[in-house]
Design goal:
- It is a single chain.
- With 132 residues, this protein is mostly helical.
- It folds into two domains: 58 residues; 55 residues.
- Helices cover 65% and strands 0% of the residues.
- The chain contains eight helices and no strands.
Length: 132
Protein backbone atom coordinates (compact mmCIF):
# COMPACT_ATOMS: atom_id res chain seq x y z
CA UNK A 1 0.00 0.00 0.00
CA UNK A 2 1.20 3.52 -0.82
CA UNK A 3 2.15 5.38 2.36
CA UNK A 4 2.94 8.67 0.61
CA UNK A 5 0.40 11.46 1.22
CA UNK A 6 -1.99 12.07 -1.64
CA UNK A 7 -2.01 15.78 -2.48
CA UNK A 8 -4.51 15.82 -5.33
CA UNK A 9 -8.19 15.47 -4.56
CA UNK A 10 -8.84 13.33 -7.65
CA UNK A 11 -6.18 10.81 -6.62
CA UNK A 12 -7.57 10.85 -3.10
CA UNK A 13 -11.02 9.95 -4.44
CA UNK A 14 -9.57 7.11 -6.52
CA UNK A 15 -7.58 5.63 -3.63
CA UNK A 16 -9.86 6.29 -0.68
CA UNK A 17 -13.41 5.89 -2.00
CA UNK A 18 -12.42 3.87 -5.09
CA UNK A 19 -13.99 6.32 -7.52
CA UNK A 20 -13.47 5.09 -11.08
CA UNK A 21 -10.39 6.57 -12.81
CA UNK A 22 -12.41 7.12 -15.98
CA UNK A 23 -14.82 9.34 -14.06
CA UNK A 24 -11.93 11.40 -12.69
CA UNK A 25 -10.45 11.76 -16.18
CA UNK A 26 -13.84 12.89 -17.53
CA UNK A 27 -14.09 15.50 -14.76
CA UNK A 28 -10.52 16.67 -15.42
CA UNK A 29 -11.30 17.01 -19.13
CA UNK A 30 -14.38 19.12 -18.30
CA UNK A 31 -12.18 21.21 -16.01
CA UNK A 32 -9.57 21.67 -18.76
CA UNK A 33 -12.20 22.69 -21.30
CA UNK A 34 -13.54 25.35 -18.93
CA UNK A 35 -10.20 27.15 -18.64
CA UNK A 36 -10.39 30.65 -20.09
CA UNK A 37 -7.33 31.24 -22.30
CA UNK A 38 -4.92 33.93 -21.12
CA UNK A 39 -5.29 35.79 -24.43
CA UNK A 40 -9.07 35.97 -23.99
CA UNK A 41 -8.66 37.32 -20.46
CA UNK A 42 -6.07 39.85 -21.65
CA UNK A 43 -8.50 41.13 -24.28
CA UNK A 44 -11.43 41.23 -21.84
CA UNK A 45 -9.37 43.27 -19.37
CA UNK A 46 -7.99 45.47 -22.17
CA UNK A 47 -4.39 44.49 -21.40
CA UNK A 48 -4.08 43.43 -25.04
CA UNK A 49 -6.06 43.83 -28.24
CA UNK A 50 -6.92 41.18 -30.80
CA UNK A 51 -4.01 42.15 -33.04
CA UNK A 52 -1.45 41.72 -30.24
CA UNK A 53 -2.99 38.40 -29.16
CA UNK A 54 -2.78 37.16 -32.75
CA UNK A 55 0.84 38.32 -32.88
CA UNK A 56 1.63 36.32 -29.75
CA UNK A 57 -0.15 33.25 -31.12
CA UNK A 58 1.82 33.52 -34.39
CA UNK A 59 5.12 33.87 -32.54
CA UNK A 60 4.16 30.99 -30.23
CA UNK A 61 3.37 28.59 -33.09
CA UNK A 62 5.96 25.86 -33.44
CA UNK A 63 7.50 26.55 -30.03
CA UNK A 64 6.99 24.96 -26.65
CA UNK A 65 6.58 28.37 -25.02
CA UNK A 66 3.43 29.37 -23.20
CA UNK A 67 1.31 32.32 -24.31
CA UNK A 68 2.34 34.48 -21.35
CA UNK A 69 6.04 33.86 -21.88
CA UNK A 70 5.81 34.97 -25.52
CA UNK A 71 3.60 37.97 -24.62
CA UNK A 72 6.27 39.14 -22.16
CA UNK A 73 9.06 38.60 -24.70
CA UNK A 74 7.16 40.67 -27.26
CA UNK A 75 6.45 43.42 -24.71
CA UNK A 76 2.67 43.05 -24.66
CA UNK A 77 2.57 42.00 -20.98
CA UNK A 78 4.88 42.29 -18.01
CA UNK A 79 5.31 39.66 -15.30
CA UNK A 80 2.89 41.44 -12.95
CA UNK A 81 0.06 41.57 -15.51
CA UNK A 82 0.67 37.96 -16.48
CA UNK A 83 0.43 36.90 -12.84
CA UNK A 84 -2.87 38.77 -12.50
CA UNK A 85 -4.19 36.93 -15.56
CA UNK A 86 -2.99 33.56 -14.26
CA UNK A 87 -4.59 34.23 -10.87
CA UNK A 88 -7.85 35.20 -12.55
CA UNK A 89 -7.72 32.10 -14.74
CA UNK A 90 -7.24 29.88 -11.67
CA UNK A 91 -10.05 31.61 -9.75
CA UNK A 92 -12.51 31.02 -12.60
CA UNK A 93 -11.62 27.38 -13.13
CA UNK A 94 -14.27 25.00 -11.78
CA UNK A 95 -13.01 22.68 -9.06
CA UNK A 96 -13.05 18.96 -9.65
CA UNK A 97 -15.36 18.45 -6.66
CA UNK A 98 -17.92 20.81 -8.19
CA UNK A 99 -17.74 18.98 -11.51
CA UNK A 100 -18.18 15.59 -9.83
CA UNK A 101 -21.28 16.89 -8.02
CA UNK A 102 -22.67 18.08 -11.37
CA UNK A 103 -21.92 14.62 -12.79
CA UNK A 104 -23.97 13.07 -9.96
CA UNK A 105 -21.07 11.21 -8.34
CA UNK A 106 -22.02 12.56 -4.91
CA UNK A 107 -23.97 15.40 -3.33
CA UNK A 108 -22.50 18.78 -2.42
CA UNK A 109 -22.71 17.78 1.25
CA UNK A 110 -20.84 14.53 0.58
CA UNK A 111 -18.24 16.49 -1.40
CA UNK A 112 -17.72 18.85 1.51
CA UNK A 113 -17.17 15.92 3.88
CA UNK A 114 -14.75 14.29 1.44
CA UNK A 115 -12.85 17.58 1.04
CA UNK A 116 -12.60 18.00 4.81
CA UNK A 117 -11.29 14.44 5.15
CA UNK A 118 -8.86 15.06 2.28
CA UNK A 119 -7.49 18.24 3.86
CA UNK A 120 -7.22 16.49 7.22
CA UNK A 121 -5.23 13.65 5.62
CA UNK A 122 -2.81 16.16 4.08
CA UNK A 123 -2.41 18.01 7.37
CA UNK A 124 -1.79 14.84 9.35
CA UNK A 125 0.66 13.54 6.70
CA UNK A 126 2.71 16.74 6.95
CA UNK A 127 3.02 16.60 10.74
CA UNK A 128 6.40 15.41 11.97
CA UNK A 129 6.52 11.89 13.34
CA UNK A 130 7.15 12.21 17.09
CA UNK A 131 7.21 8.48 17.82
CA UNK A 132 10.51 7.09 19.06
Amino acid sequence: MNTQPIHLFGLYLIHVIQLDETTIFQALEQQRQAIIPIGRLAIDLRYMNMRSVMGVLSAQAGTDKRFGEVAIELGFLDASLLQQLLDMQAENQPRIGEILVEMGMFTAQERDILLADFHESIASASLPNTEL
